[in-house]
Amino acid sequence: MFSKVLAEPSVVGFFDEERDADALETFKEVADGSRYDLRFAYVADEAARATAKLAKGPAVLVYPPPRFVSDKYEKKRARYPSAKLDADALKKFLFKKAVPLVGQKTWKSNERYEKQNVPVVTLFAAIDLEKNPKGFDYFANRLRKVAADFVGKLSFNIGDKEDFSYQLEDYELVLESKKDVGVGARDGDKYYHMTEKFNVDNLRAFAQDLVDGKLTPKIKEEPDYGSGDDDYGSSGDEDAGADYEGSDVTVLTTDNFEDETAGKDAMLEFYAPWCGHCQQLKPTYKQLGEKFAAVDSVVIGAMDATANEPPKESGIEVQGYPTLIFKKADGSTEPYDGDRDLDSMVDFIVAAAGIDKSEL
User: Fold this and answer.
1) What's the rounded Cα separation, in Å, for the pair 316 and 296?
2) Which among 160, 154, 142 has a CA at the least distance from the CA of 185?
3) What is the pLDDT of residues 75-123, one digit of tens each?
4) Counting beta carbons within 10 angstroms of the beta carbon of residue 304, is it exposed (0 to 12), middle (13 to 18) or buried (19 or more)?
5) Cα separations in angstroms, 203 against 72, 101, 131, 250, 301
6) Residue 3's pLDDT is what?
7) How far apart are CA 298 and CA 343, in angstroms?
8) Which of 84, 126, 218, 242 could make a disulfide contact with 233, Cβ separation 3.0–4.6 Å?
9) What is the mean pLDDT of the chain?
10) Quick check: helix, strand or coil at residue 156?
11) Quick check: helix, strand or coil at residue 299?
12) Residue 58 and residue 15 in contact, taking contact as beta carbons nearer than 8 Å
């Protein structure tokens, strides 16, 4: 059975809590300030260090998502190359090494790929790691044959074409049939697509032409979100929350956050009006608000985090869009990192809030 844990990268530090106190503090600082899709842990046991075959002194290892690592092409872990930890250097190292040769494109992994500072080549297909893992592996094995020759020049991943259907137009890809697959590449605001049928040879030629600068990109210009005339609303305070006005989602601001969420279980979305992923989530999130509209003990809230910020005492830090946090009635919080379909979010809230699903 597919495990989501195996599909995410992990960071493990090995420290002597007294001898390596400064390094451990830096490690914790990086862990506290990182996106929650990187899982952190540290070990202080010398026996565990010996098992990991590490010499004395602080050590930080990053493990790319095990589900996507191929023993034939890549190593299962990478070690930070210095015993002296520098926060900025460590962050850059973690993002670079947390990406496998060929991984999965998800809303969480996008940031890691963007931080590689190289064009990202994506194969769009109908994939389902839980129901059809062999289907994903079929494509991944073919991409690896090409990706291995472009390390440091290109990154490669596979995205479910239904999940990212809203992006296909950017690449000028039309994938109407379930069996249709397409390859696109993005380099900042430049978008490319492979015109030939997908196979290893054609993909290699496409990748080489991309690196050599022989392809003509489509330039995607970001719309002006500051005019207040578009569907996304302005980033100014007067229009904050326009995305959810008139729905069953509670519009949150810095000023009303405590009043609206105190003593209640709350699913909270922190979004940016210009964020494409936020816009993709919006219809489903509105349905989520409607689903819990009659449950007084639960709040489905959303905050325009470009115009507002959660109170400091909440302990919530927003470092990407959209960020989903579940805030319990007792004030404790936990990130929501599950699937972003309606059923998955409903099931999570029902379990976390301890309510009877029949109430909905």
Assistant:
1) 23
2) 154
3) 999 999 998 999 999 999 999 999 999 999 987 788 889 889 999 999 9
4) buried
5) 20, 15, 26, 46, 44
6) 61
7) 16
8) 242
9) 88
10) strand
11) strand
12) yes
Length of the chain as a residue count: 360
Give dist(CA 277, CA 306) in Å, integer: 15
Q: What are the residues facing 251 on neighbouring strands?
A: 302
Closest CA to 94 of 8, 11, 152: 11
Distances (CA, A) of 16 to 43, 54, 89, 91, 115: 8, 13, 21, 21, 31
Q: Is the dihedral of CA 228, 231, 236, 238 positive or negative?
A: positive
Report which of 52, 38, 49 is spatially closest to residue 91, judged by C-alpha positions: 38
Q: Which tokens belong to 291?
A: 């689903």
Cβ-Cβ contacts under 8 Å for 61 (sequence gap 6 or more): 11, 12, 13, 14, 52, 77, 78, 79, 80
- What percentage of the chain has pLDDT greater than the value 90? 68
**251: its two tokens:** 């519009």
